[in-house]
Amino acid sequence: MTISDDIAAMRAFNRFYTRIIGLLEEGMHHSPYALSEARVVHEIGKRNATTASELCEALAMDRGQMSRLVWRLSDLGLLASLPGADKRSNTLALTPQGDTVYSDLNAASDTDAENLLTPLDPLGRIDLVTAMRRIEAILAGPAPGGTLTLRPPRIGEIGQLIARQGLLYHLEQGWNREFELLITRIYAEFDAAPDPATKALWVADYAGELAGSIFVLPAPDDERTAQLRMLYVEPAFRGLGIGRALVDEVVRFSRAAGYRRIILWTQDCLAPARRIYLGAGFELIEEEKHHSFGADLNGQYWALDLQ
Amino acid sequence: MTISDDIAAMRAFNRFYTRIIGLLEEGMHHSPYALSEARVVHEIGKRNATTASELCEALAMDRGQMSRLVWRLSDLGLLASLPGADKRSNTLALTPQGDTVYSDLNAASDTDAENLLTPLDPLGRIDLVTAMRRIEAILAGPAPGGTLTLRPPRIGEIGQLIARQGLLYHLEQGWNREFELLITRIYAEFDAAPDPATKALWVADYAGELAGSIFVLPAPDDERTAQLRMLYVEPAFRGLGIGRALVDEVVRFSRAAGYRRIILWTQDCLAPARRIYLGAGFELIEEEKHHSFGADLNGQYWALDLQ
DNA sequence: CCCATATAGTTGACTTTAACAACTAAATAA
DNA sequence: TTATTTAGTTGTTAAAGTCAACTATATGGG
To answer: Where in chain B does DSSP place strands (E)?
Structure first.
């Protein structure tokens, strides 16, 4: 996949989706209001109260056009403009009548969207919505105010964790399929490990997107020692403290579960992870060169004593 | 996820992507041609030769408007209209000058798309393009003329197979996480199985989308017997003969690898799979009730003797 | 405090797009 | 043959979009 393939794919999608958006604006066309009027009513309704320039910004419209639209909608009785704190601008809000129109427009748009969704099977719907959210997340970047939740994995997410890390470390570190095989086995082992009270896996959910993961289980041959494994954070969600939150959660859980010590194995080429372990109080115990995943690596054992 | 959540997510994406499309039309705005003219030139260029009514259909434009656009572009020397076989219509094609304009417009659009893509990391680009193709595939349905390729898995795809089947059988059969755990182990075992000449895994690639999968490896305790496992076809790609193609490939491979017999285990609730096995000559050997994955199941052993 | 500059909104002039309807000519089906 | 469709043209009108000039207010240095 070169960048020009990506460009071609993106442009193909734009052409395709332009038509879909056309379909979804059908409902608006059947309302007694013009498309631009409907868009303005919708935007004000969504924001509750706003100003004309905010609308211009949000809808990418000309100021002059917006001015006339606001007047027309005021004449129709759909919106009221009160003088704002800033005397240059007016605060715009929908009248009760405007609220009704807003609801009607919403209902029409919902119907249009529903018409596209109903022919799909449940998996198709999930896939569609997931893909849409993914595109938004990628193009808009992670919303700064998003909520981070650490939660158990949902069905299908173990496979996703394997897929994402296999691909990620292949791209970032050049590791081959040997690594994907290894982690498939590691996740299978985790799931098969006996006592649910001494093991746990968390998925980092940032604003609804899978942003990272980690798990902990008893070390082989030593049930007083916990083993932290498979810490990873999606590139798009790095720098938000998600890795740190995951490690902290493991430490908290391990303490509560009665472990005396946490150990982990990592590679020295994974610098950001190392910084997180250091920050959480882990100490480097041992290093060992090895050849794995098609690369020459420097494996590191880290440990944290829990008092 | 109820349908109204899906509707809300879809409408949020539409609003979001409307703005992205706006950004991507920037380049066209900076050309000396109006947006509608540019779209017509682009469409003719893409199709090489066409008629006005085809353009109306493709671009969702009014016939009258199209008529005038064609005249204007002819006057500008960008396109030539030759009388077609049907004397009511003209065959429209770009002149050499029109071709130049077409290239320029394409270059401008490419630049716009590139500006959105370059800030992304490689994984983000892959994810974006994957998500876009997924949306197209879901909303447009599988292209009838798509090519089916059976190929080895790429990096990250084993995880995807686990994720997809875990989710799919949860939705279709109500199976719980026990099943996802089982298949994680099964794929790990496959990868760990020794001789690459006696085992193989195929991904069904339909028009670039992952549409299904299957694998075969030696049966435990009997190296003359092959075990067919994990046949699955994505719901969106069913009815295209993909399941049959996968099973046929396994039979072909098993014969060539010197196996005497192929066995498989399935559940009687998976009716479409059973029909494929029957069609390929498999015979039901044994049935056995069991409780697995949170459901009461009727397991079936099937076998095919290879002469 | 004043002043240069920026911002919010209005208005006029103009172009482009969009939507409808009436029309001609050729093709097609009964 | 005739009625009906289909392809395209032309006229008319409304709406949308673009540009620039203008007023009123806000803001950030000196």
So the answer is: 49-50, 79-83, 90-94, 148-151, 200-206, 209-219, 222-233, 261-267, 283-292, 295-305
Question: What CATH number was assigned to the domain covering residues A148-305?
Answer: 3.40.630.30
Which conformational region is residue A204 in: left (phi greater than 0), alpha (psi within -120 to 50 degrees), or beta? beta
Give A181 CA → C24 C1' in Å.
71
Question: Which of B10, B124, B158 is opposite residue A113, by nearest beta carbon?
Answer: B10
Give me the mean pLDDT over the A40-46 stretch: 91
pLDDT at A1 over 80: no
Task: Examine the pLDDT at A225 and tell me if it is beyond 90.
Answer: yes
CATH 3.40.630.30 in chain B is located at 148-305
Q: Which nucleotide is nearest to A62 (CA to C1')?
A: D17
B11 touches strand D (CB under 7 A): no
Q: Confidence band (pLDDT; 50, 70, 90) for A264?
A: very high
Provide the pLDDT confidence category of residue A246 given band limits of 50, 70 and 90. Answer: very high
pLDDT at B269 over 80: yes
Q: Verify whether the Cβ–Cβ distance A110 to B4 is below 8 Å.
A: yes
What's the N-to-C CA distance of chain B in angstroms? 51
For the cut 90, the answer to whether the pLDDT of residue B182 exceeds it is yes
CB spacing of A124 vs B235 below 8 angstroms: yes
CATH of domain A17-119: 1.10.10.10
Extract the tokens encoding B41.
């030139």
Give the residue whose CA sits closest to C25 at C1'.
B88
Tokens 């999608």 belong to A13
Whether the pLDDT of residue B285 is over 90: the answer is yes
Q: Is the pLDDT of residue B58 over 80?
A: yes
Beta strands at B209-219 and B261-267: parallel, antiparallel or unpaired: unpaired
Contact A110, B11 (CB under 8 A): yes
CB contact under 8 A, A9 and B133: yes
